[in-house]
Write a structure and sequence with these properties.
alpha/beta; about 45% helix; Arc Repressor Mutant, subunit A; D-Maltodextrin-Binding Protein, domain 2; two-stranded antiparallel ribbon
Length: about 300
């Protein structure tokens, strides 16, 4: 028998399956991974089933709210990340990219947490020759840095510094601002109402205080943080409720019940600002940001 003809190739995992594995591991559930990948949750489930059939092992432990990796899943994740990184390196080395350069992007921390992971991942795949540096800071500072060209572009909150009706403001995303509370918590029922606020000058802070004052609602500031992680901590500890964008509701953080008669909050918006005389890579990054938010809006609607 010819030994060469007797050897059969082993099974192969497509890079697309490994991208799904990484997305689930990083987001913690199938729905969020599907949103990041631009697929349906059922399609993601089918890919997981296919991976588990190929490797012959369970990769995830599932419950009603989230998923976690098994030991086999952790091992596959480690190798999968290496393979995806090698693939990006190969594309940069052997495929002549249309664009080569560096782009400096800024965003507030709530935007960085909610939108940037999938955005950066897709940009790295479609523009392997462009190095993207990201700075997380507040809107005021980000606008100053774009104005003095320390940053090339930034995603910022529309509000006191930037008005949505200003012709120069490129609004890329709108969604409801809501009162967020702990599911089953009691903070929302207390009097005076305990609230968690953002830093001075924040549009969401101003909107919340204006709504409460207009409604004549008795409240006290129980917590304050400039970061979304701090707001989540206050809500999860049931210390307060907080005004946040609806897309940040997740898990045990839910919109406060209607029966608590909280004053309605206005819509919130994000805008994209770009430095004067942008380079070709900066223009490409700006267009990518717009397309990502357009895609997100289509899925939400």
């Amino acid at each position: 028998m010819n030994i060469a003809t007797a050897i059969q190739p082993g099974p192969l995992l497509e890079l697309d399956l490994l991208r799904t594995l990484v997305a689930i591991a990083e987001t913690g559930n199938f729905s969020s991974a599907a949103e990041r990948l631009g697929r349906t949750p059922s399609a993601v489930s089918m890919q997981v089933k296919k991976m588990e059939e190929i490797v012959g092992a369970s990769l995830f432990v599932r419950d009603s709210r989230s998923v976690s990796l098994t030991r086999d899943g952790e091992a596959l994740l480690q190798h999968g990340r290496r393979l995806l990184a090698l693939n990006r390196e190969m594309m940069t080395r052997f495929v002549r990219p249309d664009l080569i350069g560096e782009v400096r992007l800024g965003a507030p921390d709530d935007v960085a947490e909610r939108f940037l992971p999938s955005m950066l991942c897709h940009f790295a795949e479609t523009h392997p020759g462009v190095m993207l540096n990201v700075l997380v800071d507040g809107t005021r500072r980000l606008k100053e840095m774009v104005d003095d060209q320390t940053l090339d572009l930034a995603i910022v909150t529309v509000g006191t510094l930037l008005k949505p009706d200003d012709e120069a403001v490129d609004v890329i995303h709108r969604e409801p601002l809501v009162w967020a509370a702990l599911a089953g918590g009691v903070a929302v029922e207390q009097e005076p109402l305990p609230i968690s606020l953002w830093e001075e000058g924040c549009t969401w802070r101003a909107a919340a205080l204006e709504a409460l004052d207009r409604d004549g609602r008795d409240y006290r500031v129980a917590y304050q943080s400039a970061h979304i992680s701090g707001q989540r901590a206050a809500i999860l500890a049931d210390l307060a409720i907080a005004p946040i964008a609806k897309s940040h509701l997740t898990g045990r953080i839910v919109e406060a019940r209607v029966r608590n008669e909280l004053p309605p909050l206005p819509e919130c918006a994000l805008a994209l600002i770009v430095r004067d005389d942008p380079s070709a890579p900066v223009k490409a990054a700006a267009e990518h940001v717009r397309e990502c938010f357009d895609h997100h809006a289509c899925k939400v609607n």
